[in-house]
Design goal:
By secondary structure, this protein is mainly beta. The chain is built from 2 helices and 13 strands. The strands form 2 sheets. Strands 8-9-10-13-12-11 form a 6-stranded antiparallel barrel. A 6-stranded antiparallel β-barrel has the order 2-3-4-7-6-5. Bound molecules: the ligand NCc1cccc(Nc2n[nH]c3ncnc(Nc4cccc(O)c4)c23)c1.
Length: about 230
């Protein structure tokens, strides 16, 4: 998160850090006791290794009362996701066991009604992604509030030039923005997860490249079917 601020500790108890060998790779969030939603692109440089999921954390390194690392039983990238574009950029992770819910570990409801969030709506995004252009990484969860911008503005020739589909949404990226390592985290508007951070053009903090999110509502049926079909 560029030019955000440290989140109030454990006030986003749904936040997950997807890790490989103890290193934060991507964000994610708890959508059910045994399920985390993130972005399919996060599996690009993992050469088949499964993530571990850190829940209940504010600091990535300090001991905290309800911080716990969960193993992943299975990962389900959306079948339409691919490395060439941002389409269907969703990843479902089934934890080895149900997460122990408490004050620091909580499920976040996601939007099921397929209707655009109005432009200018202020939404919040959080993550342990890079906090400056030199790629410095924070130890503590960062957050930033961003206004939604209309798909028409986001698709303007000088912005994302028609690549933003109805299954995506955008927020203004002037100065304050998402960046490397924030992918997979939730865009939360009025307490409901409306989108999942996708890297898009990978540019951070440039108003000409608004932040892009995969809208969740269009994928509610896919999410429900994967959760229902997987064992356990
Ligand atoms: N703002 C959109 C957004 C959301 C999520 C991730 C991203 N960026 C990135 N996702 N993956 C990446 N791998 C390498 N570099 C990256 N961006 C980068 C890094 C240093 C300086 C800078 O200006 C931009 C990204 C960008």
């Amino acid at each position: 998160i560029l030019r955000g601020s440290e989140a109030r500790p454990h006030l986003k108890p749904y936040m997950a850090s997807l890790q490989l060998d103890g290193q934060h790779v991507c964000g994610g969030f708890l959508i059910a006791e045994q399920w985390v939603l993130s972005a399919a692109h996060c599996t690009e440089e993992t050469d088949g290794k499964l993530f571990q999921v850190l829940l209940g954390a504010h600091s990535l390194t300090e001991p905290e009362p309800h911080k716990r690392l969960y193993r992943v039983r299975a990962q389900f990238p959306h079948p339409g996701s691919n490395i060439h574009n941002n389409k269907d950029d969703l990843l479902l992770l089934q934890l080895e066991e149900k997460a122990e819910l408490n004050s620091d570990v909580r499920v976040l409801p996601f939007q099921r009604e397929d209707r655009d969030v109005a432009a200018d709506t202020e939404c919040e995004v959080a993550g342990w992604g890079t906090i400056d252009h030199s790629g410095r990484r924070p130890d503590k969860l960062q957050q930033v509030q961003r206004p939604v911008i209309s798909r028409d503005v986001c698709n303007h020739r000088t912005r994302h030039d028609g690549t933003v589909t109805r299954n995506m949404m955008c927020t203004d990226s002037r100065r304050k923005d998402t960046c490397k390592g924030d992918s997979g985290g939730p865009l939360v508007c009025d307490g409901v997860a409306e989108g999942v951070v996708t890297a898009g053009s990978r540019v951070c903090g440039n108003y000409k490249k608004p932040a892009i999110y995969t809208r969740i509502a269009p994928y509610a049926a896919w999410i429900d079917s994967v959760m229902a079909s997987a064992d356990g």
